[in-house]
Specification:
The chain is an alpha/beta fold. It contains 27 helices and 14 strands. Helices cover 54% and strands 10% of the residues. Helix 6 crosses helix 11, helix 13 runs parallel beside helix 15 and helix 23 runs parallel beside helix 25.
Length: 634
């Protein structure tokens, strides 16, 4: 009986630029419960519309779905009748929409739109009056009206799912899920401070092992490691990371022996749920990690599936020398200190696989390091090709040794994508990585960005949503979110995510230029020029300035910036040259640059199908042929 009132809300959301799905879109033969559950799980904002029938006994489906939204921290309540929500749903302020007649300028509707947009952008929902509407924005939204059969009638619980596929919001008052946990870096109690790489590495491996348990929600490494040596209380850390439990401990290494002490505490109370100490030989470190993971699962009453048990240590090693070299290499890789650090990491990974040729994770890490070398530091085509070949060999070896390893499959996907332009092969490998690595934020980010840039924006943004939720202090995660939202043409939301990345890491590269792109694509050229000027990466800054000058009518300034970009980067900027030509309305030079980018293996060409900067030439003759060639169709 509320269908028409809800339809008015659907129409208003659509008029605001949101793409709306609700139950009228369910195809015949679809299992509607399953379809709705899928949408609920993917939603970044669940607007629960309370009415007289929704709060009554016939509204039990509304209560179930609202409870699901509360647990996920994505609950936004609205009322269309003067009612109070059922017990358990009154903690959050209701947005009133009683007697609303569909007026698109009604301040109450504007409040609702502002609250929903704030939620999906990672902000607390505003309570002040919404600002006047801006011009139409393109948002991706899911709207579901769940039908329940009661006494032969079809009743419509008022549940609306508003989603752009991303949710970086964790309400301050939300209760952390009971199965959520953060692994803090274990303290290094060894006599040598340089042994910190060992304690950090053990902590990270333990985090990865727990993340492989489907029934646990594990905070990602970057965010957890923010609290290394922190004096914050467990309740403060738990609240910041949005977890119910914290696992920390210490590592004392002496010669070939290691003592690992671990404790699991309830974050809110500081109460110790479990603790133990392990004295082992270095060769038994993986057994210690497995023992801790199993004990944590038991303490949390989480079922450790046979697959998860088998995965613990499957990609590891029994060689203390191999493990030590691997941890040193990963520490060098994580330090991000340029080409010298990358080469140092490669030496350590080579040492690890020499000590244990069956060490799958070391092969996978070696593949990632070789790929990064080829993409970032090698300019000679012959050297770059040799690095790609070596990376593919290492990745395929890792997959052969541990086909269920998400890291191995993800490494292979990266090599196939950037080293071979094999999009179909990369898609298969990323899909396999996601099957066993859905708890790993890095796996989610790699898959999500790939999916968004190759046409699967919905699944891609859903994966990135999960990554941001697990890694709320990771600037790279918010950068990935912003870049993906630009692909989705959701420019205001992209800017919010990118500015969050800058807040977390003001020195991060590529973010000012991405904000510039989003502003440019919205038509705010002067603001875009300001952002481009702030970009620390030279070629990114010059590329943006070449476009901005042209759009501001300064053709001479555009030419100067364009020539400087080419002089600085040479053939490595071929794709960026195409972007500039496209934005200057020069179709023929843009297509010529894209053709060269493909021929010279410029990785930028992989963006051809999704890059909005190329939209001005997307319908030009010859553009589709280049895209088909990249997809392997020609």
């Amino acid at each position: 009986e509320d269908r028409e009132r809800v339809r008015s809300l659907v129409d208003a959301l659509d008029a605001a630029g949101l793409t709306v799905w609700w139950d009228v879109a369910l195809a015949g033969g679809v299992i509607w419960r399953q379809a709705i559950q899928t949408e609920l799980d993917a939603a970044a904002c669940v607007i629960v519309v309370w009415s007289k029938s929704a709060v009554g006994p016939e509204g039990h489906f509304v209560h179930d779905e609202a409870a699901h939204a509360v647990r996920r921290g994505v609950y936004l309540p609205v009322r269309i009748d003067r009612v109070e929500p059922p017990l358990g749903f009154g903690q959050r302020q209701l947005l009133p929409l009683e007697n609303w007649r569909g007026d698109r300028d009604d301040p109450r509707l504007l409040d609702l739109l502002a609250a929903a947009r704030a939620m999906v952008a990672g902000l607390d929902a505003p309570v002040a009056r919404a600002t006047p509407r801006r011009r139409r924005r393109r948002w991706s939204v899911v709207l579901a009206i769940i039908a329940a059969s009661v006494g032969g009638l079809i009743l419509l619980p008022r549940t609306v799912l508003c989603s752009v596929g991303i949710d970086c919001r964790r309400p301050a008052a939300a209760v952390a899920p009971a199965n959520s946990i953060a692994v803090l870096p274990f303290a290094n109690l060894s006599a040598d401070p340089a042994q910190a790489y060992f304690s950090d590495g053990l902590s990270e491996e333990l985090l990865s092992a727990l993340a492989g348990i489907d029934t646990l929600q594990v905070a990602a490494r970057t965010s957890s490691f923010k609290f290394k040596n922190s004096r914050d209380t467990s309740s403060t850390i738990g609240a910041k990371l949005g977890v119910a439990f914290i696992l920390d401990g210490s590592v004392r290494r002496s010669g070939d022996r290691v003592r690992v002490s671990a404790q699991l505490v309830e974050a809110a109370s500081g109460f110790e749920r479990w603790s133990d100490t392990y004295d082992r030989d270095l060769t038994d470190v993986f057994a210690v990690q497995r023992g801790i993971a199993e004990a944590v699962a038991a303490a949390l009453r989480v079922r450790l599936a046979d697959r998860a048990v088998a995965a613990l240590g499957r990609a590891g090693t029994a060689s203390a020398a191999a493990n030590d070299a691997y941890l040193r290499g990963r520490a060098a890789l994580d330090a991000g200190i340029g080409e010298a650090g990358m080469r140092s990491a490669l030496v350590m990974f080579d040492t690890a696989v020499a000590a244990d040729p069956r060490f799958a994770e070391a092969h996978a890490a070696r593949a990632r390091a070789l790929l990064a070398m080829a993409n970032q530091f090698l300019t000679a085509s012959q050297a770059q090709r040799a690095a790609y070949d070596a990376a593919e060999a290492a990745a395929r070896r890792a997959v052969a040794l541990a086909p269920d390893s998400a890291e191995a499959q993800s490494s292979l996907a990266g090599v196939l994508l950037y080293g071979r332009f094999d999009i179909a092969g990369a898609r298969r490998a990323y899909d396999l990585a996601l099957r066993t690595g859905s708890g790993n934020a890095d796996i989610l980010l790699r898959y999500g960005l790939f999916a968004c840039r190759t046409g699967a924006v919905g699944p891609g943004l859903a994966a990135i949503q999960q990554a941001v939720r697990r890694d709320p202090f990771n600037a790279r995660a918010f950068k990935t979110l912003g870049l993906s939202l630009i692909v989705a043409r959701s420019y205001p939301e992209a800017i919010v995510a990118l500015r969050r990345a800058l807040t977390l890491n003001p020195a991060i590269i590529g973010v000012h230029s991405a904000i510039g792109d989003a502003l440019l694509l919205q038509g705010d050229i002067p603001a875009a020029a300001t952002e481009y000027a702030a970009e620390p990466e030279t070629w990114e800054r010059l590329r943006g300035q070449a476009i901005a000058h042209a759009r501001l009518g300064d053709r001479a300034g555009s030419t100067i910036a364009f020539n400087a970009m080419v002089a600085d980067g040479g053939d490595s900027t071929t794709y960026q040259q195409a972007q500039v030509h496209a934005q200057r309305g020069e179709a023929a030079p843009a297509l010529a640059a894209l053709t060269r980018a493909y021929a010279t293996h410029d990785a930028g060409i992989l963006l051809i199908g999704s890059d909005p900067l190329l939209d001005p030439v997307r319908t030009a003759a010859g553009f589709a042929a280049i895209a088909r060639r990249l997809e392997g169709q020609d």
